[in-house]
Structure formats: structure tokens, C-alpha cells
Design goal:
Blueprint (H helix, E strand, L loop, with lengths): L5 E6 L7 H17 L4 E6 L1 H5 L6 H18 L7 E4 L5 H10 L4 H5 L2 H10 L7 H4 L1 H11 L4 E3 L5 H17 L9 E3 L32 H9 L20 H9 L2 H7 L6 H10 L4 H26 L3 H30 L10
Helix pairs in contact: 3-14, 4-8, 4-15, 8-9, 10-14, 11-14
The chain binds tryptophan (TRP).
């Protein structure tokens, strides 16, 4: 039998999606959705994972569950093709995690580079929640519960996929079975899309740094953020030569600009290389490149914003869809748990005399 293709990916509901998410993950999800080369496609709203460092901030997580769902749908995720599921509404994931925890050492968890970075950012020392350290194990459950073998993620998630693969091997060898397929990470193709810099030139667009352009931002807010974006501090007069490297406007143009945009908004140039060359030479001002970028981003964001306004009129319908999907996902996860328990031999009820 040919292997089923199951795609699964997810996000923590801790804030609205921004254009960094758009190029980094949403765009590739949309293209996978359009290709249609899958048997099942799940997007998980990872609220349980978000709670591992927000235990006392449930309201934030709760509000962002629906926000994230609206962001996905307004950006073009089609609920007839993709199942958006709420992690906490699939309790089997927690049960799987308990069994997987016995197959992973604390030393191994402490070596996870992404978790290490996040611990540093959050200043966790003795106050490190056990749940946070263990979230890569629960992420393995997210992936394995639904038999996902294709996991489209950013680079920072590679350690989680590796951890999942190790859990698969450990489970198979410990319980002498072969029930999981090995998941494969799929990274975005365009290098410029793997990590979008913040509007302030900071290496990462991140809500906590306040340097994001959100998908839901109003047109004037988008424009203002672009006009204030970091460019080249030594490019003072228009005639000065300018630097393209480290220049936020060019970083965004690399990610979003297509040749058609020149014909439409800036016909003096044929493509981005010509624009960059002029900037480097001198004689091209920041306002001009910023207005060009503004046109491109407004064109991208305007239909998303319109769709959001429609969706916001009927939140109940979105919640119903999420609960329905989560219920179906739960059934799938229950089958997986049954297989796990059979392999482990904790299916005692089967020995009851009839
Ligand atoms: N850890 C991911 C993030 O922070 C979110 C996530 C949770 C996820 N479960 C997943 C991603 C399963 C891919 C697959 O963005």
C-alpha cells in the first residue's frame, strides 16, 4: 500500500500573525494547499504548548486561539481542504506525551538548541516549568497522533522534528513494533523567507520586540511602519551611495517583490537588481523605495483584511468548525493510542474472560 501523505504543522496562539509568518509559513501552506498533493492536511493551534510558559496567562492564549484561526482563514487557508484543530481539545495528545516522556532523557531535552534559546530569552533558571522543558515531547505527540509525515516548519523547528524521529525509533525498538512513520521537515524554499527581519532592523520580527507588521494592521498603520523602517543610517542625502545589505526595505522587497510589481508601480526599473544597483550607486531616495514597498504590501494585505472583517461577523461559526475538527482529530488520535497500548502491552482489558 502506498504511504498516505499527511501534512501537519502548527503555531502557538500567543499573538496575531505578521508578515514574517506570512512569508515564513503561511505562503508555503497556501501553496501546499493549492497543490493538493496530500491525503490529509492539519494545522494545529498549539494552545497547550503556549501554556507551557503562560500558565498564569490563560486569557492571552485563549483570545489568540480565535485570532489565529481568523488569521489563517483570512490569509486563504481553506477549511474544506485543511483541518484547523485546537491542541487542547484533543486530550489524547496529553496521554501520548506521558508514554513518550519515558523514552526521552532530561539531558536530551536540555540539549535542544531552540528550547535553550527560548529558556535564555525568558530568563528561566530554577523557575523553569517542567512542561516547558518537555514541550518537544508533546510536539512529537502532535505529529505522531495523526500519522503526519510531512511537517512544513521554519528552521527553528528542526530540533523538534529530530526529537520526534528519535521518539519514533525509541518507541519501535523498546516495544518491538513499527507503528509510526518517520516525519520529515519541509523548509521554505526562498532563503529570504526563512527569517524576516523586524522593521527596526532587528534580526527577527517578533511581537515582543514591537517591530512587526501584522496581517490585520490597517492601511495607515502599515504605511507608517514602512515609512519608519530602518534603512541605511549613512544614506543621508539622496545622492549618497546606499547599502542594501541590512536594509529592511530591501529585505522585505527580497521577500515580497515580483517583477510584475515594477511594471505596475515603478516602471522605471525592470526588476529588483536594477533598483538595488541604483540605490548602491546613489541617487535613489528612501521615500521612493518605501512607497514602492508600501504599494506591494497594501496589495497583499488588503484582501486579507477584508476577509477578516467578514469572518469577525460570525465567530460562532469558526468556533464550531474548530470544535468539529478537534473532535474528528481526537478519534484519529484515539486509534493511534490504541495501537501504542497494544504494542506496549497495556491492553489489560483484552485479557478479561468474556
Ligand atoms: N513549536 C511550534 C512553534 O512554536 C508550534 C507547534 C506545535 C508545531 N506543535 C507543532 C509545529 C507540530 C509543527 C508541528 O511555532
Amino acid at each position: 500500500m502506498e504511504q498516505r501523505k499527511v501534512i501537519l504543522t502548527g503555531d502557538r496562539p500567543t499573538g496575531n500573525l505578521h508578515i514574517g509568518h506570512y512569508v515564513g509559513s503561511v505562503a508555503s501552506r497556501l501553496s501546499l494547499q493549492e497543490k493538493g498533493d496530500f491525503d490529509k492536511f492539519y494545522i494545529l493551534i498549539a494552545d497547550t504548548q503556549a501554556l507551557t510558559d503562560n500558565a498564569d496567562n490563560v486569557d492571552k492564549v485563549k483570545n489568540n486561539v480565535i485570532q489565529l484561526a481568523i488569521d489563517y482563514l483570512s490569509a486563504g487557508i481553506d477549511p474544506s481542504k485543511v483541518d484547523i484543530v485546537i491542541q487542547s481539545q484533543v486530550p489524547e495528545l496529553a496521554e501520548m506525551t506521558m508514554y513518550f516522556m519515558n523514552l526521552v532523557t532530561v539531558a536530551r531535552l536540555n540539549r535542544n538548541p531552540t528550547v535553550k534559546d527560548e529558556m535564555k530569552q525568558r530568563g528561566f533558571n530554577a523557575g523553569l516549568p517542567a512542561g516547558f522543558l518537555c514541550y518537544p515531547i508533546s510536539q512529537a505527540s502532535d505529529i505522531l497522533a495523526f500519522g503526519a509525515n510531512i511537517v512544513p516548519v521554519g528552521e527553528d523547528q528542526l530540533p523538534m522534528i529530530e526529537q520526534t524521529r528519535e521518539i519514533v525509533r525509541a518507541f519501535h525498538s523498546t516495544y518491538n513494533c513499527n507503528i509510526f512513520s518517520l516525519p520529515q521537515a519541509v523548509l521554505p524554499e526562498n532563503k529570504a523567507c526563512q527569517r524576516l527581519v523586524g522593521t527596526d532592523g532587528n534580526a527577527k520580527m517578533s511581537k515582543s520586540l514591537g517591530n512587526c507588521i501584522f496581517l490585520k494592521d490597517e492601511p495607515d498603520v502599515v504605511k507608517q511602519k514602512i515609512m519608519n523602517a530602518y534603512t541605511d543610517p549613512n544614506h543621508i542625502k539622496i545622492t549618497d551611495p546606499g547599502k542594501v545589505e541590512g536594509n529592511v526595505v530591501f529585505a522585505y522587497l527580497d521577500a515580497f517583490c515580483k517583477n510584475e510589481h515594477f511594471a505596475k508601480y515603478l516602471p522605471e526599473y525592470a526588476n529588483l537588481d536594477e533598483l538595488k544597483a541604483h540605490y548602491r550607486r546613489g541617487g535613489l531616495g528612501d521615500v521612493k523605495i518605501k512607497l514602492f514597498l508600501n504599494n506591494i504590501l497594501q496589495e497583499l494585505l488588503s484582501p486579507i483584511r477584508e476577509k477578516r472583517k467578514e469572518l469577525e461577523k460570525n465567530l460562532d461559526q469558526i468556533y464550531e468548525m474548530l470544535f468539529e475538527n478537534s473532535k474528528k482529530a481526537s478519534e484519529v488520535a484515539r486509534d493511534t493510542i490504541a495501537k501504542m497500548k497494544d504494542a506496549m502491552g497495556i491492553n489489560y482489558y483484552k485479557f478479561l474472560s468474556k
